[in-house]
Amino acid sequence: MNFSPRSAMLLALSLAAGVVLIALAVRQLRRGRSLRAGVAVVLAALLLLSGAALQKNRVTQGPLTWDGVAATIWPKPIAAPSAKPLTKKEGKADGILSDTGEGWIAPKLAKAWGKAPNPEYKADLKEFHPEGAGTTGTYFTTTWKGPQSGLKMDVIVWAPKGWQKLHGLGVIEMLHGYPGGISGVPAAMKFDQQMTDYIAKNLIQPSVIVLPLLRPDGAPTRAFDFPGEPKVGTWAARDIPAMIANNFPVSRAKDMWTLAGVSEGGYTAPALAVLARDTFGAAVSLSGTNNAEYGPLAQAPEDVQAQMALTSLLSKAPDLAVYAYSGGAEPKSNKLLTQLAAMAKRPGVTTLFRDAGRGHGWDTWKHAFPGVMKWVGSVQKNKAKTEVAAVAKPPAKSAPVAAEEKNMHGIYAVTGAASALALALFGWRVWIWRRRSAADDGVAARRGVPVGRHGSETVNKASNENGGSSMAAEPARVGIGAKVARFIGWDMLATVLVVAAVFVWLVLALNLWGQWLRSEEDILGLLIQLGLPYDG
């Protein structure tokens, strides 16, 4: 049995237990036990919330281990970034933006980039078959320590069939988002089957796909070097390319190297490609944003964030080919496309594509993958052209943060009003059953029947044994249909609405901690991540 954080069995058990607790809450309510009914309501909401988290995890390929879940809920504190000016020698090095005054990655490629093999960059690559992935080509996995970064993390590599006899392979390094990892990506993207087909049709040069992990300590995804932080930028932009170059017959030409990313990786991939433009000739952003959303950079001063915005960085790398994609129902990614459209006249290729009716998740990115790979193939063949027709009519200007917060205030107000009505209905049912229990207790007292701690239930039993009747006594014969109808009547409606209210307030309480939802569009994005069909 599989009880991982994306297990279908665990999801089914969570939802089933939530439904059982709702039924138990109704039963306790009808017996006049309002406290027990309330406890059952809260537990039901918590179980259903857990089920929603599991479903989101399954759709978005979130943390795939319980340690990853724990790190997401209780992340390690992240040190605030501090500026450390480069030396004049470092400032002139390839791959570093000297005018930023920040050492975001190691300034130079390792000596391993040369044609001579370097033992430090040989990795123990083991063939394996990812669960749920295709079987074309060869998958490799390794846990490898980068000499420059000092980080030891997992890496997955896919190579086309017969790669050993090929030379000048292209490289597509793909960065994951947050929360997330790499183990579920091959199954989610099914890229091996598509790549084999594109290579056979000569739409793309034979290429390897590299998936490096970017979370050395379980903290939010980040891909830059910060003082006191793991050197994730050097790991992704220096160590990984050198390791691939020492283990596979790849090309050293920049046009054959692409750095791609999804979600938070959709920001970090183009940013890193600019910083390491001595290695990468192309960058792909799938559902990315103009600025970092997580990690130290998201907490940096505004002037630092402005320096590291994609619109700022890309202006300093005019020859870098860029492909940016938005699923349509992604406000922040739509805004990035609009911002990049204004830069379409830059010398490098800028291709923008805004899809229709798609949200934020692996289903969307798998759908986008064919177009991305055809574009990468055109870059490899120096045939890529700038295309921005998909965003010729940019979406309306995004509302300021204050307006978004006002929108959330409206959501809180509507939720509060709906919750008050649900509580009023539930309170009315509690009052009805307590009134019946009190009336039965009064009847019992007049007849000399002892009243037990179960209230009207004891009275009913005693009254029936004595041949009497009770206000709460039911007819001797009640059909199953009538019992079900009574059970799913007002009491079930009141209980379900209260559970829904508790569920929503738990989500909003978590939002105060995580700040994931700041507008109605963010809520739509969350629903899409839960698997809600969206047709635009």
From TrEMBL:
Pfam families: Esterase. The chain crosses the membrane at residues 35-54, 411-431, 492-513. The keyword Ribosomal protein does not apply. Keywords: Membrane, Transmembrane, Transmembrane helix. PANTHER family: DIACYLGLYCEROL ACYLTRANSFERASE_MYCOLYLTRANSFERASE AG85A, ENTEROCHELIN ESTERASE-RELATED. This is Enterochelin esterase-like enzyme. It comes from Arcanobacterium wilhelmae.
